[in-house]
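Journal club prep — side note

Before the paper discussion, L.F. wants everyone to see what a predicted structure for a comparable chain looks like in token form. Sequence:
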Amino acid sequence: MNVAATYYSTRIYTGTGSQTAFTISSGQSANTLFVFNNGICQFPGDDYTVSGSTLTFVIAPAGDEVVQIREMPVGRVIPTSVPYMRRYTANGVQTTFTVSSGQTANSMFVYENGVCQVPVN
């Protein structure tokens, strides 16, 4: 089973250097979130915890650090097409790449050298 892009959401925050608590949707857990600080994947338990509608970082994200929280659908898994991966080799010039029809910036994960890229809103 795969998840339709319209069934999960992305929250973008900016770190302050002191704020550790960030709002997430009720019903989420550490296992239904993908959390990134400046594109670096954070790990539940080691880097953050979840309680109710609050995600709390162990260490506050630095000032101006981009915090991206992707909330997976809870109880809304539906069959769609088989997940698809495309791999490209950068050439230093190309800035556009082909993706499957119907995809949006918030319906896929894009990694560059293993680092998740944050979609431009």
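L.F.'s comment for the group: The CA atoms of residues 59 and 101 lie 39 Å apart. Keep this in mind when we get to the figures.
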